[in-house]
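To: structure desk
From: M.T.
Subject: fold request, one chain
Message: Could you run this one when you get a chance? Sequence is below, nothing fancy, just the single chain.
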Amino acid sequence: MKRFSALLTAIIGFSILVAGQSASELAVAYKDLAVFETPMALSLKKGVRKSAIDQLQNAQLKEAALALLNKSYNPEYRSATYKAWLTPTTLGQQLMIGDGYSKYEGVTGIYLPEGKHTILVDGIAEGKEVGLLVPNWNRRTPEGVKPDKDPAGWGIHKQRFVLRNGVNIIQVKNNGGLAYIDYYSDEPLKEKPIQAHFVAGKVNGYFDISKDNNDDWNKLIDNAVYPVIDAKGKHIQIAYPVEACKKYAYGKGMELIANYDSLVYRQHRILGLIKYNSVPDNHILARVNYNYYMFRDGDGVAYMGTDPGNAMALVVDPARVLKGDPCWGFSHEVGHVHQLRPYLNWGGLGEVSNNIFSLYGTTSFGNKSRVSEQKNYQKARDSIIARKICYLQDDDVFNRLIPFWQLQLYFAGAGNNPDFYPDLFEAFRKQGNAEKTGQRGGRRGNGGWGDRGNNPAPYQLNFVKTACEVSKTDLTDFFDQYGFFYVGQFEFGDYGSYKYDLTQDMADKTKAEIKAMNLPKPKVDLTRLED
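Reply: Done. Structure tokens follow.
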């Protein structure tokens, strides 16, 4: 207890700054800990009687002590260790993507209703901040307001508390919610795990595909105390309504999470993360929302959980996750997370390069490609090639997508190079790292990681040259037909304003660099390829 006495002195001095805690409440809690064998309050001291427990003033500690005395206290979920996760922003910088991976990795399986709660923590290193997040997954639009017009927006509303070693007393508001340990680091492997005990916490539980089965999934659904449940796979994390999971996936939790994992796995594969051993431990978050059918924001992918526009039947049924609209929708939104910035997400590709992932994912599961169903191959030839315009001058984002997908069709087939895109993405990551370390100087000169600049022309020329280098194929004629060497100026919008400006000297220089590689031409006319 010497360690806790020291912690008591330190925390009482700090308590005014911690929301929901007062010096007197902390002092009472530390005094009440005297009946427990250890500061984490998971067992009682020998000889402790009920009369002593009756004197405890902290409600949660008293409840836990009585349950321990009666041998009915279950520490599962209430007490656990939590590792540090790689900070999503740092992950994004390493992979040259956004920071769209989950900010809720520290799933606890604990529901914290509105009110005060006692949490015991140990292991937080000096100078390291660890928090607790309580998001409101069940938030609805105010009565009389259309869901998509919610003045509070579509994003996650949450409370965050800073955790300290020792006793933490927090005040949860707004109907409460599920709890998540907020423990991230730029170097997670160097961080020690922390321990947290949600004293007498309400257990909602969670599903983990690495250790649970469908019986565990059903028990989770049947015994949930909150309207939303958590589940984790190798690559996916979901927060979906209990009701929907019971209706569409009862007895099928393994299949549901495995199918989501497969969708993310395919994106990792085409990104080159599998080939180059760069698959992150972090997860993509898919959650329920009550504002809009499907969307992606900085917290992951969100699906509507009620009428009108209820998407749950599509995204919770394991069989439907890999088919049609749900397969495309998930791949499309996660594709936004995986767009390389700016190397394959310059101005004009905001709703284009993410669909390379959509097409790769959907067709790999046997779905007919959307561009084939929409006849975009012929539309692109008629609109872009026949009119001799730049692909960016075509307003149809699916027409813009065609040349990027025809590269995949060629190299996965007659080009005999199925690793074309994995190698290309790796080459771009190397370029980005070289620029960050100053080894690859100002080719573009209008921004670094994540900055799409104003003029897309230098980025697309870099794409053309790198594609030729990686594939060891002279693709000049193919790119020329789709206007990648289009000389001129024009302005357009794509989540911002852009001014395309490509000069004859820029085009000639890139063509000369490719010619100097002395590479063979493709075996077929790529512009005629269709799936």
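Reply (cont.): The CA atoms of residues 412 and 418 lie 4 Å apart. Let me know if you need anything else for the meeting.
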